[in-house]
Design brief:
Elements (H helix, E strand, L loop, with lengths): L8 E2 L17 E7 L3 H18 L12 E9 L4 H12 L6 E5 L1 E5 L5 E4 L5 H16 L14 E4 L14 E5 L1 E8 L4 E9 L11 H7 L1
Parallel strand pairs: 1-5
Antiparallel strand pairs: 2-3, 2-9, 4-8, 5-6, 6-7, 9-10
Helix pairs in contact: 2-3
Organism: Rhizobium deserti
Protein name: 2'-5' RNA ligase
InterPro entries: Cyclic_Pdiesterase
């Protein structure tokens, strides 16, 4: 599938706004993410790198850092132990099914010239899982984490300049069977894994989208 050649501006940003727990000047972010499989991350990186070279754009993000952000718990100078403990308890209490993900388009994050891969038709399952995660975090006394859910995306190039979006000849697809809590050290280009939890195929199904419910009536 070809990239959207228009200047699509995705909502949200790969750099989430600071929350009550941290400072906007802090260099690291605590966040929940979905990680593509290792071989898929490598393909994303290689194809983004070729695109960047062709477009004289910025460098492709390292393969080991590629992720799809779910929720941020804020920016901090060091891992916040008390918040991490509550976040891990919240994550461990979740029952949810694996999430099929297909990234079939590319576009730029709003105003930041960051090139990202995203699902052209959205992904309701990612949104629903983010809501499940958010409710569990609030239940564990971590309220008000993210005000607005951004378009699900994986950023592949920062500072992409004025080039075109990336053409996608083969979709990036996987089934997310786990989610991860990471402490992202931005200045060191490093993600410290805090915890990882499996999704359960036997968990209750996600709610049907409203349009499907209307059609079923």
């Amino acid at each position: 599938m070809q990239a959207n050649r228009g200047q699509l501006l995705l909502s949200g940003s790969d750099d989430w706004p600071a929350q009550r727990g941290g400072s906007s000047r802090s260099a690291s972010t605590l966040m929940f993410v979905l990680r593509p499989p290792k071989d898929l991350r490598l393909r994303m990186h290689q194809e983004a790198e070729r695109h960047g070279q062709d477009q004289a754009a910025g460098s492709a993000c390292p393969a080991h850092l590629l992720h799809l952000s779910l929720l941020s718990l804020g920016r901090f100078d060091a891992p916040p132990k008390a918040i991490i403990a509550r976040a891990k308890a919240a994550a461990a209490s979740i029952e949810a099914r694996p999430i099929p993900i297909t990234l079939d388009s590319s576009g730029f994050l709003g105003g930041k010239r960051q090139l990202a891969l995203y699902p052209a038709k959205g992904n309701q399952r990612i949104v629903q899982f983010g809501e499940i995660l958010g409710r569990s975090l609030r239940h564990h006394n971590l309220p008000g984490l993210v005000e607005k859910q951004p378009t699900p995306h994986v950023t592949v190039i920062h500072d992409s300049g004025t080039g075109d979006p990336m053409s996608i000849e083969r979709n990036y697809a996987w089934i997310a069977g786990e989610f991860t809590l990471v402490f992202s050290h931005h200045e060191e280009a490093r993600q410290e894994e805090i915890g990882r939890w499996s999704l359960d195929p036997k968990a209750p199904p996600y709610a049907a989208p409203a349009e499907q419910l209307r059609m079923a009536v």
